[in-house]
Specification:
The structure is a single chain. By secondary structure, the protein is mostly helical. About 70% of the residues lie in helices and about 5% in strands. It folds into two domains: about 140 residues, no CATH class; about 150 residues, Up-down Bundle (Four Helix Bundle (Hemerythrin (Met), subunit A)), CATH 1.20.120. Strands 1-2-3 form a three-stranded antiparallel β-sheet, with no helix packed on it. The longest helix is centred in the N-terminal third of the chain and has 30 residues.
């Protein structure tokens, strides 16, 4: 009968010195495992947006009044802290789940054969964003939910989503130089779309910072701006993003673009329509918490699909054994985003 190989002293030393290299030497994940690991990290980055929104919308932002402990005397929430303490502490615990998902993505990428340095670096980039954002989240608590720090906290999470989306896409393609599937003018139009989407997200954080949901039941400073005016600016930017998306779809149809860019653009348009409906309903119904939470989820999905549109404009050939030195030459298999 086979058994688990015993670890030698040299193995134990190697595992302690460089655990990632040790695991990579003994485990080769299937490509679908690497893709699932990257997708898990992406999903958790969206989940943390939704749960962070729940903390703010339930007024639990100071449920744990200090950081890194929940209180000066307790690392965890206590029963005396009630509902708000449980919500805030639960969101902090989900950060560890996010770290585990990102760690799995790093290990899977590091262990894939042949080794893909770029993919592993994308995993590590997510790790450092999570760590820095955790510290920023602590600062948010320590400064009493200052709206500018809250906005920075959300923007950092949007950066995490961007890196996670790119890594997920890169697990589904090779490492050859990207080949453009559309012309320069189309790519320029897409970058205008990206810029508008970034502005939409930034102004959305200002709407949050000036709006009524401060994140705590006590008196919390708000951004000294007229909320109605900022909300209308946010709506104008949303319509600009929708218009650019529709224009992109029309142009892609006109130039007979490949299927992938058309599909991603159509999906983005549907996400934007749903997000727009939620946005207008919440505006005219005095911002009910449930709809605000859905709008935050929609913001994350919108950002993912904008990035997917960008990534669908090129293709990379798959890495195959024939790419290795001395291997017989065969046509490379191409994949599209």
């Amino acid at each position: 009968m086979g058994g688990v190989p015993k670890l030698t002293r040299a193995d134990a030393t190697a595992a302690v010195r460089n655990p990632l290299a040790f695991i990579a030497a003994r485990w080769t994940p299937e490509p679908r495992t690497v893709r699932r690991a990257a997708l898990a990290a992406l999903v958790m980055s969206v989940v943390i947006v939704v749960t962070g929104g729940a903390v703010r919308l339930t007024g639990s932002g100071l449920g744990c009044p200090t950081w890194p402990k929940c209180t000066d005397d307790s690392l965890t929430a206590t029963s005396a802290m009630g509902f708000h303490g449980a919500i805030e502490f639960g969101n902090r615990m989900l950060t560890y789940v996010l770290c585990a998902a990102v760690g799995w993505a790093i290990i899977a990428a590091r262990s894939e054969k042949p080794y893909r340095r770029g993919l592993t670096r994308l995993g590590w980039a997510q790790f450092w964003i999570v760590m820095s954002n955790a510290v920023l989240g602590g600062i948010v608590v320590l400064v009493g939910l200052n709206p500018y720090t809250v906005a920075a906290h959300f923007i950092a999470t949007s950066a995490l989503i961007a890196v996670a989306t790119v890594m997920w896409q890169r697990t589904r393609e090779g490492d050859a130089e990207p080949r453009a599937l559309v012309g320069t003018s189309v790519r320029q139009l897409v970058w205008f779309l990206v810029a508008a989407a970034v502005l939409l997200i930034l102004v959305g954080t200002v709407v949050t910072g000036a709006g009524p949901h401060a994140g705590d039941s006590s008196e919390v400073d708000r951004m000294p701006l007229d909320w109605e005016t900022v909300s209308k600016l946010h709506a104008v930017l949303a319509w600009i993003v929708v218009t650019l998306t529709f224009a992109l779809w029309f142009v892609l149809k006109a130039v007979d673009a490949p299927k992938a860019p058309l599909a991603r653009t159509r999906e983005l348009f549907l996400v934007l329509l749903a997000q727009g409906v939620i946005g207008y309903v919440q505006y005219f119904t005095d911002l009910p918490e449930a709809l605000v939470g859905l709008h935050m989820l929609g913001s994350a999905l919108m950002w993912i699909w904008v990035l997917r549109v960008v990534l669908s404009l090129r293709e990379r050939t798959q890495t195959t054994p024939t790419d290795l030195p001395g291997a017989p030459e065969e046509p490379a298999v191409a994949t599209r985003a």
